[in-house]
């Protein structure tokens, strides 16, 4: 099945995804630098870009930068005075992301903040940052519950919180608690389900990234 998923993703990308050439080169630099190939696919990146547009976003927050690929796709949908803040723990990843962002001409639009995401989220709250119209969470899964709670505080009514990798090849069904990443994902489902300020759903996905899924929460109050 994986071969079929790969070919279908290629089919979709060839017909519907027209990426900026410099943004696409970011993945080549990431591979050359030895970064793990865990960035979103081109089709997923285009979906994020469409969500930015649908949300009418001027302020976007991303948790988990890697090489900057998804950040750049989203930033290209922002108005001229829009701003995207992306949080990255690994200095090597942050340095490469800044280079990629500069090469794409987006250095004035995207800010890469390095350090533990929870510290950066606290700092953003203290600075009065936002409110953000879209938050994309794609970092360590065990921390998803806290990322979601803090993102909700920074997101305006009508904003979106998007969480990647919330199916994990079906491991989300494992209630044993043995895998802290799976446990983090399961707990964020519980948080979202119990949170009256959002309405949400999740979708299973297949493609070049394998079998996984994403959740989308709309802030309603």
Task: Explain this structure.
There is one protein chain. Helices cover 44% and strands 24% of the residues. By secondary structure, it is α/β, with parallel strands linked by helices. It has a single domain (2-219), classed as Rossmann fold (3-Layer(aba) Sandwich), CATH 3.40.50.150. The protein has a 7-stranded mixed beta sheet, sandwiched between helices. Helix 2 runs antiparallel to helix 5 (91-103), helix 3 (42-54) packs parallel to helix 4 (69-75) and helix 6 runs parallel beside helix 7. It is globular, with a radius of gyration of 16 Å. The termini are far apart. The model has no long low-confidence stretch (mean pLDDT 96).
The CATH topology annotation reads as Rossmann fold
Would you tell me the overall average pLDDT? 96
CATH superfamily: Vaccinia Virus protein VP39
Q: Which class best fits the helix and strand makeup? A: alpha/beta
Low confidence ranges: none
CATH architecture: 3-Layer(aba) Sandwich
Strand order of the largest sheet: 3-2-1-4-5-7-6
**Alpha plus pi helix count:** 8
Distance between the termini: 41 Å
Number of domains: 1
Q: Return Rg in Å.
A: 16 Å
Helix content: 40-55%
Question: Summed up, what is this model?
Answer:
It contains 8 helices and 7 strands.
Which tags fit this structure?
alpha/beta, Rossmann fold, single chain, seven-stranded mixed sheet, 221 residues, 8 helices, 7 strands
Can you lay out the helices and strands and say which pair or pack?
Blueprint (H helix, E strand, L loop, with lengths): L1 H15 L4 H12 L9 H13 L4 E5 L5 H7 L7 E6 L2 H13 L6 E5 L2 H11 L4 E6 L6 H11 E10 L15 H15 L3 E10 L2 E10 L2
Parallel strand pairs: 1-2, 1-4, 2-3, 4-5
Antiparallel strand pairs: 5-7, 6-7
Helix pairs in contact: 2-5, 3-4, 6-7, 7-8
């Amino acid at each position: 099945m994986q071969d079929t998923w790969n070919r279908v993703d290629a089919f979709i990308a060839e017909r519907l995804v027209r990426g900026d050439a410099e943004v696409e080169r970011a993945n080549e630099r990431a591979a050359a630098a030895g970064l793990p190939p865990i960035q979103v696919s081109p089709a997923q990146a285009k979906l994020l870009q469409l969500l930015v547009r649908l949300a009418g976003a001027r302020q976007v927050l991303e948790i988990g930068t890697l090489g900057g690929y998804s950040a750049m796709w989203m930033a290209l949908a922002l108005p001229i005075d829009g701003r995207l803040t992306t949080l990255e723990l690994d200095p090597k990843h942050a340095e490469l992301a800044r280079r990629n962002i500069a090469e794409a001409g987006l250095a004035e639009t995207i800010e890469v903040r390095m350090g533990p995401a929870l510290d950066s989220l606290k700092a953003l709250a203290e600075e009065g940052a936002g409110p953000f119209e879209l938050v994309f969470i794609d970092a360590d899964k065990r921390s998803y519950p806290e990322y979601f709670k803090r993102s909700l505080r920074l997101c305006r009514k009508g904003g979106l919180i998007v969480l990647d990798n919330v199916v994990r090849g079906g491991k989300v069904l494992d209630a044993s608690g043995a895998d802290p990443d799976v446990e983090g994902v399961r707990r964020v489902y519980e948080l979202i389900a119990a949170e009256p300020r959002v309405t949400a759903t999740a979708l299973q996905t297949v493609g070049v990234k394998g079998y996984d899924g994403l959740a989308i929460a709309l802030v309603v109050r």
